[in-house]
């Protein structure tokens, strides 16, 4: 990322888009402490998070999912859900929360199945709901729709809106433009590690620089 600066509106769903290799995942890695920025700041609730360890940032209420899923393959679906530490609630409550969340994405019947035996789409859904175990305030989703069938995707999107209504802030990286244009209030566009545009969907759709980044220069 080079001189890239943006402000994510609190309590809204925002989209971060850009061609392959434009720096979207890198941005998430910088925001969550997987990469340490060699300059700049990450301000969250008035505090600079740059340079903190991933677990420290997680404890401040920031959670994420990964483009390539990172579930525990040798743990069951339920164990994956309960692997989240620092919940601060009794085991019984955690279990109930886990059951509700997996039922929500139609994984209830697979609660005892090993993570590694789930389909790719199911792993994405498991990772999505696992990220919600802590009741985070800022949720970063890296391509949540990839490989998830239409029906479940709709559930996932409904759930996202419900989270937003509860006051959560959500940022989605996604190549599915229907998801981005129909569900995000604000969109940030990256290309070659810099922000090339920012605005509401209608504006972004007719932005020359965005069209060019995606489809190449007009002849
Ligand atoms: N630690 C690193 N050091 C140097 N280059 C890196 C590093 N991490 C990623 N890159 C490069 O930075 C570019 C951006 O990668 P990134 O994964 O952020 O893209 P992306 O926008 O998420 O793309 P995609 O849509 O394909 O997931 C790529 O060319 C990648 O190879
Ligand atoms: Mg990526």
Molecular structure report:
The chain is of the alpha/beta class. The protein has two domains: 1-65 and 135-219, Rossmann fold, CATH 3.40.50.300; 71-130, no CATH class. It is 37% helix and 16% strand. It is built from nine helices and eight strands. It has helices at 24-31, 54-59, 77-82, 91-104, 120-130, 150-165, 177-183, 201-205, 208-215; strands at residues 13-17, 43-44, 47-48, 62-64, 138-142, 169-173, 186-191, 194-199. Strands 4-5-6-1-7-8 form a six-stranded mixed sheet, with helices on both faces. Strands 2-3 form a two-stranded antiparallel ribbon. The protein is globular, with a radius of gyration of 18 Å. The two termini are 29 Å apart. The structure holds adenosine-5'-triphosphate and magnesium ion. Residues 18, 20-26, 67 line the site of adenosine-5'-triphosphate.
Key traits:
alpha/beta; 219 residues; Rossmann fold; 9 helices
Chain-wise SSE layout:
Layout: E1 13-17, H1 24-31, E2 43-44, E3 47-48, H2 54-59, E4 62-64, H3 77-82, H4 91-104, H5 120-130, E5 138-142, H6 150-165, E6 169-173, H7 177-183, E7 186-191, E8 194-199, H8 201-205, H9 208-215
Parallel strand pairs: 1-6, 1-7, 4-5, 5-6
Antiparallel strand pairs: 2-3, 7-8
Helix content: 25-40%
Q: What percent strand?
A: 15-25%
CATH superfamily of the largest domain: P-loop containing nucleotide triphosphate hydrolases
Largest beta sheet, briefly?
Answer: 6 strands, mixed
Kindly state the mean pLDDT as a whole number? 92
**Total count of domains:** 2
Overall CATH class of the largest domain: Alpha Beta
Structural class: alpha/beta
Instruction: Give the C-alpha Rg.
Output: 18 Å
Low-confidence stretches: none
Shape category: globular
Strand arrangement, largest sheet? 4-5-6-1-7-8
Number of strands: 8
Count of alpha and pi helical runs: 9
CATH topology of the largest domain: Rossmann fold
Taking the alpha carbons of the first and last residues, their distance comes to: 29 Å
């Amino acid at each position: 990322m080079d001189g890239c600066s943006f402000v994510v509106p609190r309590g809204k769903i925002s989209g971060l888009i850009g061609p392959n290799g434009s720096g979207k995942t890198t941005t998430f890695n910088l925001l969550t402490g997987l990469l340490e920025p060699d300059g700049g700041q990450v301000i969250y609730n008035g505090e600079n998070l740059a340079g903190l360890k991933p677990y420290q940032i997680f404890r401040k209420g920031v959670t994420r999912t990964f483009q390539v899923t990172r579930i525990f393959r040798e743990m069951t679906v339920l164990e994956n859900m309960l692997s989240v530490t620092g919940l601060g609630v009794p085991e019984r409550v955690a279990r109930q929360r886990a059951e509700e969340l997996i039922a929500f994405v139609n994984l209830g019947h697979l609660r005892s199945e090993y993570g590694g035996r789930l389909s790719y789409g199911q792993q994405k859904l498991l990772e999505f709901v696992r990220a919600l175990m802590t009741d985070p305030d800022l949720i970063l989703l890296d391509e949540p729709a990839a490989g998830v069938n239409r029906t479940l995707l709709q559930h996932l999107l409904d759930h996202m809106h419900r989270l937003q209504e509860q006051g959560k802030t959500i940022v989605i990286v996604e190549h599915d433009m229907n998801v981005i244009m129909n569900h995000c209030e604000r969109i940030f566009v990256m290309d070659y590690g810099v922000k090339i545009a920012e605005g509401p969907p209608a504006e972004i759709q007719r932005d020359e620089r965005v069209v060019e980044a995606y489809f190449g220069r007009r002849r």
